[in-house]
UniProtKB/TrEMBL annotation:
Its cofactor is Fe cation. Signal peptide: none annotated. This is (2Fe-2S)-binding protein. GO terms for molecular function: 2 iron, 2 sulfur cluster binding; dioxygenase activity; iron ion binding. Its EC number is 1.14.13.-. Residues 57-163 form the Rieske domain. PANTHER family: CHOLINE MONOOXYGENASE, CHLOROPLASTIC. InterPro entries: Rieske_2Fe-2S, Rieske_2Fe-2S_sf, Ring_hydroxy_dOase_asu_C_dom, Rng_hydr_dOase-A. Coiled coil: none annotated. Keywords: 2Fe-2S, Dioxygenase, Iron, Iron-sulfur, Metal-binding, Oxidoreductase.
Amino acid sequence: MYREKIDVVFDDGDSILQRMLEQQRHDASRAETLPPEAYNSDSFFRLEEDKVFRQDWLFVGHESQIANLNDFFTLDVVGEPLLILRNDAGIAVFSNVCLHRWAPIAHGSGNSRSFICPFHNWTYNTHGKLSGAPSMNQAQDFDRQQCSLPKIRHEVVFGMIFVTFNADAQPLAPRLAPLTERFQRYHVADLVTAYTLDYDCPYNWKMAIETFMECYHHAAVHRTTLEDSFPGRLSSIIDEGPGWTICHQPLRKNGELSEILTAGLEPFSGLSDEQMRFSELLLLFPNCLISLNPDRLSISAILPVSPHATRWHRVVLVSQASAAREDFPQTAATMKQGSLAIIDEDQWINAEQQRGSRSRLARPGRLSHLETTVWHLANYLKIRMAE
């Protein structure tokens, strides 16, 4: 009786990385997935954290989320609780960890002139300075005036807020400069937040990004939702740069504009007739996903938690004209409800994919030309992790 040998899988991040680096990255027609162990290994996940997420620029939000003085929101990024806010000097990003005994000082989002640690009432102002520390008068040489939350390096590019933990990282704006015309076309810096959506994904962060960036799966996973209007076979990978990859997603040939536009929203000004008939999916490496549509954008931060868990922070943006309409609250609620149906479909298939990737019989799979963005992400990781 024939029995296929099943290799014993060891959690060896360096070995997985070596296999990954041996894959070719010059011929798209021979593209294949990363080794399945790269989606499951604890030690490989730690390499990704160290070599990618603690070295490159990471998207965390849009400045319209903190449009007013003292607005703030919080986000955990690579195990670092962050506080993103607007003070009288502009946008700032701080560690969200109390200097005393490490409890986060802020939760969720809101507007506040101070942040009080829920553990012992240590209080910080919007510049990260410790302004109150009860009952510390007997602590020798303690001077609260010398205590400040660590500040996180950040850049705002076209209204998008990015952070890095790498003091030596090259500025981000020059890398994204070739996308200037595209971002200006969609008025990215001038948009306002319609709603945010945060949810947990029971699968690896790369699976979240890969699925978002290809339309090949529409016919199977989204056959009653996206496929009718945006057939996956019509999509194409139109651009790749030093920091991004782009998927073009056209409306079907005889599709109506009502299939791509949202009732209750104003289309962006200045778009041509052709530009009104497609959306684009952008990945700004490593964790920023953007969906550009004629009347709305979604920009997402994909935040790894573990090899098998990811946090998704999605910001949906519209024009100021759309947000000013009397019926906008209902429009936003309808948009949010509609997006949940697509999210549920992707949640299910990616959870199944994660389960299958743990099989000892799983091997790297060949990729379609409709999945070239998946290969682009793999190549980005190979370059970053070889450094």
